[in-house]
Amino acid sequence: MALRRLGKRAARVAAGAGCIGAAGGVILYQTDPSFQRSVRFWQLTGPIVAHYLVERWRAADDADRDARYKRLHAMYAGRARQVVEESCSTFQGENGS
Prior knowledge:
The chain crosses the membrane at residues 12-29. Keywords: Membrane, Transmembrane, Transmembrane helix. This protein is an all-alpha fold. The protein has helices spanning 2-31, 33-58, 62-95. It folds into two domains: 1-31; 33-97. It contains three helices and no strands.
């Protein structure tokens, strides 16, 4: 019984900490342009990185991994280039270039 109460209390504390963290993230996003850029970058690149990690994990050997990476490159190269170009233009505008 005591263990169950401890579990419920831990869940409440975790939920409260999560809410505070989420509120802090929203405030940062609204007030800090560099945080906005970081969020935008990971929104665009996170799925690509995750897909590469999954394919690396699924590969049977080095040759299979290389073949999987070639398919991923064909799938994501254009999108990755757009992310880089968008990031460069954002940072150039920030420096007054």
